[in-house]
Design a protein that fits this description.
The chain has four helices and 16 strands. It is mainly beta. It has two domains: 323 residues, no CATH class; 55 residues, no CATH class. It has a 16-stranded mixed beta sheet that branches.
């Protein structure tokens, strides 16, 4: 991959092929977090948190005109010992991991009727993953899911999003002290689907949280993973890969809020883009509060542009309120497909389409390996191959 230098906000590379931006001040939202949709003004696209999002393609999720009535099927396959419940809005576990931070998340919280709560008892170590299927059947739907791990519990959760329709949702991950949770969230929607979701993780003392977000399908996908810590010693790893095709808008906006001492975070997202008007947005915010002494944090985003007509907006933000930290850093790079790598492989007798596949697979390999579920890894690599075949 040929890397490009970071580009100031608002500028473009030759041919308007990619855009990158960098700031040292974490993004500020236009309204404080709240469960009440009335606390958020209707966005107009000029707000910092909405400036990259094509509001007209949200199908009314942002202005209250999207009425629920669509089909949404949620199925949970859980190992023995795991409790799966369907609860109403009064359940005290809902919203425990964090409040909505924008109008769509608040709309989702105020509009869902039933929520799924998956609980892993303390000191339970699962040897098989919890598998969740979320399938849209058309129309607009709102959802809420909670995954709760007791103290020293360990689990892997795989969430598959497929089908069609418009979905706005909140997903909460609550980790007890010493717990370990790996979540793989796959967005493999049909071409016209819209998916907007806020992911909230509350990481307990000495707990470990790993998130792997994979985005392929959909007309518009906008995800907002957020991490806060409930005690010192917590660790969070946020990995992501996305393949943005012709006309798709895929947006990932992350916040890691270091609010207690001696916690760690590592963020690594990679994306590939191809086709006219393919648009990927990555916003990575890390806030290290004054009380969070001893923090160790790093975030990285890399993008590989395979064809002309694609655009990337990459904005890493780092805000530090204390000098007593172990380390903090960020990086962003966007580059075209490296023709020299392609030539090298072809000179060894490898056909062009196979050479392109090998380069892109190598670009994503380190993130795919973070999944740790063999059948999911194989399926995602096959999906990458299918996407590349479509561009040949």
């Amino acid at each position: 991959m040929a890397e490009a230098q970071n580009i100031p906000a608002g500028s473009t590379t030759a041919g308007s092929l990619a855009v990158a931006a960098e700031s040292t001040t974490a993004t500020r939202m236009s309204a404080p977090p709240s469960f009440d949709v009335a606390d958020f003004p209707v966005p107009h696209g000029r707000e910092e948190e909405w400036r990259f999002t094509p509001l007209a393609r949200l199908r009314g999720l942002h202005d209250g005109t999207a009425e629920a009535g669509g089909e949404l099927t949620v199925e949970v396959e859980a190992p023995e010992g795991v409790t799966v419940e369907t609860v109403d809005r009064a359940d005290a576990r809902l919203g425990k991991a964090g409040k909505p931070v924008d109008r769509v998340a608040a709309q989702a919280y105020s509009s869902f009727e039933k929520a799924s709560v998956v609980s892993v008892p303390k000191e339970t170590v699962l040897t098989e993953p919890i598998r969740v299927s979320v399938r849209g059947g058309g129309g607009t739907a709102y959802g809420h899911q909670v995954f709760e791990l007791g103290q020293f519990a360990e689990a892997v959760v795989v969430i598959d999003h497929t089908g069609d329709g418009v979905l706005a949702a909140n997903v909460d991950y609550v980790l007890g002290d010493g717990a370990k949770l790996t979540v793989v969230s796959v967005q493999d929607w049909d071409d016209k689907a819209v998916h907007v979701a806020q992911h909230n993780a509350l990481v307990g003392r000495d707990a470990s949280f790993k998130s792997v977000v994979v985005t392929f399908g959909g007309d518009l996908v906008r995800l907002h993973p957020r991490v806060t810590y409930a005690g010192p010693g917590g660790e969070a790893e946020l990995f992501g890969l996305y393949f943005t095709d012709r006309g798709q808008h895929q947006e990932h906006r992350l916040l890691v809020d270091h609010n207690v001492p001696n916690c760690k975070s590592n963020v690594a997202y990679k994306g590939a883009l191809q086709g006219q008007d393919a648009h990927a947005v990555w916003i990575g915010d890390v806030l290290i509060q004054a009380a969070a002494e001893g923090t160790d944090s790093y975030e990285m985003n890399r993008n590989l542009v395979l064809t002309d007509g694609a655009r990337v907006d990459s904005v890493p933000n780092l805000e530090i309120e204390t000098g007593e930290i172990a380390g903090a850093g960020h990086a962003s790079a966007t580059g075209r497909f490296d023709d020299e790598q392609l030539f090298y492989l072809q000179s060894r007798g490898i056909p062009e389409d196979e050479a392109r596949r090998l380069v892109v697979r190598g670009f994503f390999a380190e993130l795919v390996q973070q999944i740790g579920v063999a059948d999911v890894e194989e399926r995602l690599l096959a999906k990458i191959d299918t996407e590349l075949e479509a561009s040949v």
